[in-house]
Amino acid sequence: MPTFVIFDLEFTSWPEALEQDWSAPGQLREIVQIGALRLREDHSVVEEFEALVRPVVNPRLSPFFTTLTGIDQRTVDRDGLPPARALSDFLAFCQGRSVLSYGNDMLVLGENIGWARARGEEIKHSPLTPGFLNIRPWLNTVAPTTASSNSGRLWHVLGLPRPASGSEHSALFDCHSIAAALRHLSDEGVALPEGLL
Length: 197
Prior knowledge:
globular; alpha/beta; single chain
């Protein structure tokens, strides 16, 4: 049975960064956490992927980011992978599959791949091989109550049971929230658009 991937990213942030589209000097969207699920067409989980990443330009996490995500400096310093390694491992997890996100996380992924390559780091596996797609516009259309929701709250706005341990703004939890929304819609007879997978 074919599988596809859902992924979510947590990346460096500061107060008002979202509203200012990370335009303040030195504020880059450096990935700190990657979460992903490999799912069957029936939306059951085959495999999980999770990695912490050590930011390079802004190695000190902002208090805002830590409060938002629960990811603290000591954990990233101890367990975080170099960006090229984490990105390569994630792309290997995605190879040959459609890769879906709830939002334009693929743009942030592309930025981080570009920065790593500009530093002379090797990224193994091509980000062009899998098909990266933003399913948010489709999901918001078929389930309008989700339109103002972030990925980690989809389960809540759809009135579903908590899909996993953890909370929103944890990349892997957010993936489980997206998967729960897709399972719910499938059970309601709403399938992903033909040709997406």
